[in-house]
Records
---
Amino acid sequence: MFVYGSLVLWNFLVEEISTRILTVFVAVLFLVRVLQKLKEANSLPPGPWGVPILGSLPFLKGDLHLHFRDLTQKYGSLISTRLGSQLIVVLSDYKMIRDAFRKEEFTGRPITEFSTLLDGYGVINTAGKLWKDQRKFLHDGLRHFGMSYIGSRKAQMENRIMREVEEFLSVLAAQKGNPIDLNPFLAVSLSNVICDILMSVRFSHNDERFRRFMFLIEEGFKLFSSLEASFFIPILKYLPGQRQTREKIAKNRVEMAQFLQETIEEHKKSFDPSHLRDLLDTYLYEIQKANEEGVGHHLFEGKDHDRQMQQIMGDLFSAGMETIKSSLQWAVLFMLHHPEVMKAVQEEMDQVVGRRRLPKLEDLPYLPVTESTMLEVMRISSIVPMGTTHAPTRDLQLNGFHLPRHAQIVPLLHAVHMDPSLWDEPEKFNPSRFINSEGKVVKPEYFLPFGVGRRMCLGEILARMEIFSFFSSLLHSFEICVPAGETLPSLKGVAGITISPNAFKICLKPRPMEWDSMGTIRPAGSH
Ligand code: HEM
């Protein structure tokens, strides 16, 4: 009896002690974790803490890039803040951005609701080896098809662009000076340039297929924006309405994928390895080579080939069309606001290019007023105000602060372009800031419309060629004015991933070319 009683007591004590030890152990673990979090929070770059769960979300006012700019003015050029569950680190000093983004460890992409929707396909939202291989391949491929400052391929690219410029100008001339919104005309012409390079596809201005494709892209942007809240507070994705939005995104993606897949299938049928027509063919070539060698291709890392090609085409199209369209719309808008600059650009071209032909890329070094005007448009509009969001590939230190692996790193390009310590009166539109005392165009190292470092824009050369060709030809061919009775359109843009102007209308009055007064058809080789 005594032995039994002792055993019961012993067991009771052991259980009691174990429970207590376990409780103490859990409490210590919890405390250590809380201390770790506090230490981490203390070593993060400075910035507003906000409120529990929501972070700074309730205090967001206006456009995100302007909100971040206000914070950097208050807390310094490296700040951190929480938006819901996401830790955001903003860099606004150009040297800091440049030095950080040169390093491999800043080339990651954050894992967000948005990136999971894309399943790691494409180039823009990938990271690691797959991104690196993809980027190198695309860089070489785009060069091969003329995205280069030198060589015969450059001439090919210029011809391709000028074919679209001429069609653009003739469609505009057919509007006979009536008020028009340039947006749909630019959309077709610019899409044709990029689609030709990617997959030898061109659209006409009334093409139903193209309209549907553009509609799906625009709707996609809107649908993604309406999911934004759940990117920051993931639990919101279970709200009614959010599921339907996701389903709609998936449905639209299938429709766009079908459109792209049709082109991929046509390419597969007519594929000739000795004559690669476009970027899509270069992918097919790589796949064929890998199949013959019986190995998986490093460009796909076990991913579905067709889906990867679809996403690459989609990535380059969406990165390459909207950005140039917005830049050109900003350029026109600034010309309406600064007719004296428009006049100076036109006079320079009349003198250097003459009235017998359209401007060519080789004229550019002799057109400092035109070039500096385009640069100033890019600076002041900063159409990709926050670049793309990067993520550290591991926990890092930057300027003595801790950047955890899950942080989202934002390069605030807008703040760099509006920094009064770098630019004199940055809010003022002043192209001559890019011209030195010898009359030459100079681009300071803190001019970063295409970002900087390892993940900087892949399409910079094409973008510069297109912006020059469309802008200079438009101004060479037409006087641009506000429709009679209408007020000057606002310079306040609509901010999303890019900033574009609100829709506005213009009237175009032809500036006679010499072949018009001669009553002849445009002479062959005049452009
Ligand atoms: C005015 C036109 C354009 C501007 C201002 C622009 C600007 C930018 C910026 C700021 C970035 C992010 C850089 C970073 O995060 O560090 C970017 C990335 C990118 N751009 Fe552009 N871009 C333009 C046109 C184009 C064109 C025409 C193409 C395609 C042919 C293109 C393809 C890309 C791609 C693929 C990336 C992502 C690169 C990567 O993730 O490694 N862009 N661009």
Note: The first strand starts at residue 78 and ends at 83.
---
Amino acid sequence: MSETLTLRRPDDWHLHLRDGAMLKAVTPHSADYGRAIIMPNLVPPVVTGAQAAAYRDRILAALPNGAVLDPQMTLYLTDTTDPADVVSAFRSGVIRAVKLYPAGATTNSASGVTDVARVRPVLEAMAEAGVTLCVHGEVTDPSIDIFDREAVFIDRVLAPLRDATPGLRVVMEHVTTKDGVDYVRDGGEDIAATITTHHLVINRNAILAGGIRPHYYCLPVAKREEHRLALRQAATSGEGRFFLGTDSAPHPDTAKLQPCGCAGCFTAPNTMSILAHVFEQDGALDRLEAFTSLNGAAFYRLPPNEDRITMVRHDDPIAFPETIDVGDETVTIFDPGFPLHWQIEAP
Ligand SMILES: NC(=O)N[C@@H](CC(=O)O)C(=O)O
Ligand SMILES: [Zn+2]
Ligand SMILES: [Zn+2]
């Protein structure tokens, strides 16, 4: 008999679904999650409550019949965000969180915050109303080495921001360093971190293994092996401050395979299979549920999903396609570099 694992339905606390044809193609791959925090970095970005509500309707329309996904919307913080709009969108249930992108830090972040001082009134209103701030934690100073930008962000931006705004709840998105893990672990009740699928699997060498591997390029860029191991330890520890945010970030292959290719790994289709493998390897299958289905909900002060999924371990590796089609384009699915045996059992 095959081994099985039953766990509460997972949530994805950091997901890019894009818009238009891409939205239609990728959304079904996240349809079996209970909830997902939907990133607002569209072009143009989702900056008002009304835009978030309209985007949520487009997502719901892209879900297949029988899907359970309940999209949790976010607003893209800009220098001119209106605190009253944020609070009213939160209180009316339109949004779950607000996303801070330092201007220029990552894909579609040109309208991001240029100086935290400019958004101080919004942050204060958020702390007061209990709205979570999700943060892309990298400085954009070109003189800081790209591999140090997360650690420097903590010192220069995140710690002062939190000191100046007591009570603000913050999620350090896609944490990639031991420095980030340590900061979150010691940071008190109001901070947590998402960890992606791919950062548990690759270190920075994977991007340059025998040649340049654009599909392993994402931001924050993968770091040294010691950092990957710190992330593995945090994710598999069961500690409540760490939870799954896939950061599944689809781009057409034509945009990835360029002299200046864009950042992002598309992990929605095979994340649960990869995570089961990773947790099994680390002897932590009994803590997978905490990472995927309990800790994030608890941080967001939501009940965990009531229903369950079952994963089955097949003796023979299961096959995933290399790509999915999006109109005339393809999007490459993240290749973990090892065979996958765990699969979500069809309901
Ligand atoms: N992670 C990435 O490499 N890319 C994300 C943006 C982000 O989450 O920083 C994207 O939108 O493509
Ligand atoms: Zn980001
Ligand atoms: Zn992201």
Note: The CA atoms of residues 181 and 318 lie 32 Å apart.
